[in-house]
Amino acid sequence: MKYLIIIVCLCFSNANAALDDELPLAEQGDPNAQLEVGMIFFKENDFKKATPWLLKSAEQGNKVAQNTVAAIYETGGWGSSERDFQKAVYWYSKAVDQDYDTAQVNLGALYQFGLGVPKDLNKAFSLYMKAAEKGDSTAQFRLGVFYEKGLSVSQDYQKAVYWYAKAVEQGLASAENNLGVLYSKGFGVPQNHTTAFNLYLKAAEKGDDQAQLNVGMMYFGGKGTKKDYAQAMSWLVKSAEQGNIEAQNAIKDINEVFQ
Hints:
The protein is mainly α.
């Protein structure tokens, strides 16, 4: 299963000018400047220079730096392919101690999938809930998944709809697709294929491969929209090109029928 790691990056229009401004402050021990200097070097793929500045900032308690350091350990940054989930857990936890919603989502994922810690869906759910209540769209989406599938909580489609809808309000494509599925099946809401199609289409236009598959199949079956074979194949191909196996199989099956 895929999960998202969220890293907050500070962007500069002129990295050299920013470095000139921030480096003296970083050398004087300013944690925010240390974070910014570290991110400048990180964006330039100079991990040897980025590492000490990010760690200095994190060690001084900068929650963004702590989350960033954790994410780099999780993904195997620092210019190597090694991943250290236990160190990721350590630094995410430091940021979570400061009630940082981004770190709550990232640490929740490690508990959900048992990376660096024993798998604990209850802990993951609790972390997602804290972040979701602050308005984090990824956390809201994941709560929707937990309620839809009954992970660590009783299956509750209405609550799944509620949290997916919260994330949809923020334009999250994966939530648009999943809410579309619930409308298509009539789970937690009255069945409405038109609403489902419109949600799928929004997500598909953002590049969500599962939504592209669903749009293609809706066009092919004429559910929620008029039948349109050309549109169906166009969206199925988009999904298949992203590696979606279901879309690849659907194209194969359709081609065999129409040969």
